[in-house]
Amino acid sequence: MSANTTTTADGQAPAKQGVSLPQPAAATSNAKIMRTAGVILLAIGIAAPFLSGNFLIFQLTMMMIYAIAILGLNILTGINGQFSLGHGAFYAVGAYTAAIMMDQFGIGYLWTLPVAGIICFVVGFLFGLPALRLEGVYLALATFALAVVTPQLFKLSPFEHWTSGVMGIVISKPDAPFGLPLNPDQWLYFLTFAIGLLAYVCARNLVGSRTGRALMAIRDNPIAAGSMGVNTPLFKSLAFGVSALYTGVAGALGAIVVQYISPDSFTFTLSVALVVGLVVGGVGWLPGALFGGAFIMFVPNIAEELSKGLSGAVYGLIMILMMYAIPTGLGGLLKAALTALSKRSMNR
Amino acid sequence: MELLAQQLITGIATGGIYACMALAVVMIYQAIHHLNFAQGEMAMFSTFIAWQMLAWGVPYWLVIPLTVVVSFAGGVAIERLVIRPLGDAPVLSHIVVFIGLFAIINSLAGFIWDFTIKPFPSPFGEGSQFGGLISNHQIGMIAVTMTVLVMLFLFFQYTRVGLAMRAAAENPASARLVGIRVGWMIALGWGMAAAIGAVAGILIAPIVFLEPNMMLSILLYGFAGAVLGGLTSPTGAVFGGFMVGIIENLAGTYIPEIGGELKLPIALFLIVTVLVFKPTGLFGRTVVQRV
Questions:
Q1: Which spans are transmembrane here (chain B) (predicted)?
Q2: ipTM over 0.90
């Protein structure tokens, strides 16, 4: 989550354009900048809950939760090249898994996270199978339909015994364990922080691994990837599964932090927000997820402050203007800035 | 038997609305190869404009053409001001811009006319024909959608501008070479899509009631219709829209588990099934790609 090391995309830059000689030196200086930025972010992240009020801590926690979900979406869209406008559905599945386990079976909240992840992995993998036949807009359309339908699916009467229908489920907030001197908000913040960090490291290693290269090869040229021996259908479904796993864990965390879920917490606005966060943060740039999470958490509030009645319109306007100004998101902007910077230091 | 007939007619009537939405979606898809996720909100806004004019006491026969003209201008303006500057930006940027448009239009409508649910009078009055088998509004819906569809067919098949629009969608480079102003043809497509959406909105508003979020499910059914018929075929989209209307009503009536609450998931089911088994839809043509 925090940008404590170089991203894969940056790390690969010298390999791709290995013609010019000074490039590796530039890449190291970039790496240095990124590492410094990561350490600063990490320090801010650890200090923040001691310096801010409980509501801000809650907001920061939600921001990181969104970032985890966006990270999952980034693996699917940015790394594997498949669109999804319906990730709110996986978020909802994760949230409901956690809530039902805690509410019906009285299982501890920490155990719900891996279970939510596994269930979402299976659901995502299964949804990925029909999605294999869909590309581009068609996949966007099918997942958009999934996003619109999600709240209705959770209202269905056959599941009402589990989901409590429209009423929703109330969850109690867990206290800090081992007598740690933290209030519940701070504890949940650090829990989310740790899981987010773990999720980021896993995602980075996944992208840097053989599997990650296969996923990127499929994104760049599925036919060539297939002829190189990559099992395209398997990896595409796997990408869907892993992506859903991330989003599901985020959903479970979200349910615990918000302490209440109902079908209408997961309207298509949520799915749409995740996509917006992904694009704003930068498609394919993993640390961008944090910025995306910040955008979808705080910009609507800023919009509300600018104009109460027209907050939606202001938010929409900011989105559109962002797309005009930086079509590749913050990640693309940063990359361009770093390239310019290293070029200048080389000329000196 | 009477229930079946009644449900069929209801299906055809609402199917006409879905057909209009599907057609609007397909027109824009053919022009810019992107799905307009804000199509439903545009139609909703047009419907509010019509409601406002009715509230000011403008007679109904004048309200409809006025709304259509205003919507047409609005559609052209959106294309010129918002979509055109995007150019060849990646698909996801387009999607975000459509989402932004969605938020802006939705919030504007809520700001101007607030989010309370408003009844919308039918232009065809209350009452029904053939012993309650079909309401006047349903007859009107079917008649109006049919008229719109036939007029569009004639426009595309027999007028110069219609031919130019088809050429611009089919092959923009060649169309430009023979002197067609492709950019304006795309804007025209947006205008017409907005106008068709306005008609659909006015016709469906007496049934679903008027509020800023009324078109989301209608748009989803429209998408389902467009996919069923094929995103590359306007005729297919119209056919698909009617099919979706009929399937929705029959499934809601005869499959007890579905009932009213599951009607929306039918759209999802239809979209996924059609895309998995026949990705080009029933009438779409296969796009062959060179490696």
A1: 6-28, 60-79, 91-113, 133-156, 184-208, 267-288
A2: no
pLDDT tens, B80-109?
888 888 877 778 888 888 988 998 998 889
Within chain A, what is the greatest distance between any pair of CA atoms?
A: 70
Contacts of A303 (CB under 8 A, 6+ apart): A311, A312, A314, A315, A318
Spell out where chain A has E strands.
169-170, 260-261
Nearest to B103 among A141, A312, A328 (CB): A312
Taking only residues 31 to 50 of chain B, the set having a beta carbon closer than 8 angstroms to any beta carbon of chain A reads 33-35, 37
Q: Which amino acid is at A226?
A: G
Residue B163's domain comprises 2-277
| Residue B282 in domain | no
- Asked if residue B283 belongs to a domain, the reply is no
In chain B, residues with a C-beta closer than 8 Å to the C-beta of A272 are 99, 102
Domains of chain B: total: 1
Domain that holds residue A287: 8-13+24-46+55-347
Alpha carbons A72 and A77: distance in angstroms, whole number: 9
B91 to A130: CB separation less than 8 angstroms, yes or no: no
Nearest-angstrom CA–CA distance, A325 and B79 = 18
CATH assignment at residue B204: 1.10.3470
Q: Report which residue type is found at A91.
A: Y
- CB A3, CB A34: distance < 8 Å: yes
* pLDDT, tens digit (0-9, with 9 covering 90-100), for B223-237: 888 888 888 888 888
Q: If pLDDT is split at 50, 70 and 90, which confidence band does A347 have? A: low
Q: Give residues 232 to 271 of B whose Cβ lies within 8 Å of A.
A: 257, 261-262, 264-265, 267-268, 271
Q: Is the Cβ of B112 closer than 8 Å to some Cβ of chain A?
A: no
Q: Residue A84: give its domain's CATH number.
A: 1.10.3470
